[in-house]
Amino acid sequence: MHSSSSSSSSVPLVLPRAQHVAFLRQYVDREVTELPRTFELWFTEHKKISAAYWTITALALLGRLDVVPRERLVDWVLRCQHPCGGFGGDYTQDPHLLYTLSAVQTLYLLGEEKRLDKDSVLRYVASLQQADGSFAGDVWGEIDTRFCFCAALTLALVGYPLRCDDDCLSIGVNTDQRQMVRIQALVDYVMQCENDDGGFGVIPGAESHAGQVFCCVGTLALCGALSGLRDRGDRLARWLAHRQLRNGGFNGRPDKLPDVCYSWWVLASLKIIGKEHWIDGDALERFIFACHARAEHGNEYVGGVADRPGDEPDVFHTFFGLAGLSLLGRHELIPIDPIFALPQGTVQGTRTRHPYEIPSSTESTAANGSPSQSSE
Ligand code: GRG
């Protein structure tokens, strides 16, 4: 398979649903427990459970969850849980918040959350909160705003309303094992990661990056704390809008190349703060289609999406490309929730219990400085 290196606007903007399903099925049709020690299939073994989440969520957006070998997948996911409550990226791997979130998302997507030992998950998440409100990814203590989001979304999915007015959540059925999650401290920590340019970084003082922005904005939204953003989010929206390049794609920070995955990190962030109209959605759509893998000579799509035009497709970029198109409202795709990164229908119940507010689109426009496209 080879994809054309052209990103010309002549690519047909017709979603190759059948080809995408065939591309994704290559992964789910395998025996998941036998899987693949090969790089090109699941990237690396330690993150196999995230690859499973990307693959089946992409299939769900295409309306084809029926092709997933449900029982086999659920058994394997549950086997990845450790006695501490956290999940590893495979059953041979150590537990980590990144893979705990992917496991919980996968079980919710498959409607199998009842098989989850929620209390042990809650205790695991709570055990990783630090004195300053941040979260470590695992027992080794790396700090990164990604882990704040993984913790917040995992807690939300397993049923904890994360409101600042609750201040402390008391977690655990057995009183002797009670642990606390300090929500206000989490919000305060995330706000320390806000930069003068309106973006957020990996730790306080670190360069703004679109991936970290998504994690911070998602965490604030889950905690009902979006109102703390500078200039009602306008400064952040301006920084995000400037991620759009002349070819319609987004980069993750200034002077970097575009990558189709930022279609999600940037657009979902804008959607969460109600400013998705600050970017050129048609140009982004054309860029995502230009990243679709194509047969060597011609415009025929072969299934899968790459990071940028001409590169090889993989499940990570296929998921984020389709998720971006879903956020843009493509009618062939099931609508995705910009915070939970799951089909809206899957999280409806959770959202009803904990109605995280997404502001409706605001009236702010390009007159506020956005979106003037930066050079490629
Ligand atoms: C459930 C959607 C979802 C997310 C879970 C893991 C996670 C929480 C969020 C990851 C956010 C993040 C940091 C995304 C960026 C990924 C990426 C392409 C990083 C590449 O960074 P660099 O510095 O590349 O290598 P650039 O593009 O800056 O050159």
Automatic annotation (TrEMBL):
Belongs to the protein prenyltransferase subunit beta family. The lineage of its organism: Eukaryota, Rhodophyta, Bangiophyceae, Cyanidiales, Cyanidiaceae. Catalyzes the transfer of a geranylgeranyl moiety from geranylgeranyl diphosphate to both cysteines of proteins with the C-terminal sequence -XXCC, -XCXC and -CCXX. Residues 351-376 are annotated as: Disordered. The keyword Repeat applies. Keywords: Metal-binding, Prenyltransferase, Repeat, Transferase, Zinc. Residues 359-376 have a biased composition (Polar residues). Residues 17-341 form the Prenyltransferase alpha-alpha toroid domain. GO terms for biological process: protein localization to membrane. GO terms for cellular component: Rab-protein geranylgeranyltransferase complex. The keyword Nuclease does not apply. Its EC number is 2.5.1.60. GO terms for molecular function: metal ion binding; Rab geranylgeranyltransferase activity. It is an enzyme of class 2 (transferase). Pfam families: Prenyltrans. This is Geranylgeranyl transferase type-2 subunit beta. Its cofactor is Zn(2+). It catalyses: geranylgeranyl diphosphate + L-cysteinyl-[protein] = S-geranylgeranyl-L-cysteinyl-[protein] + diphosphate. Binds 1 zinc ion per subunit. Heterodimer of an alpha and a beta subunit.
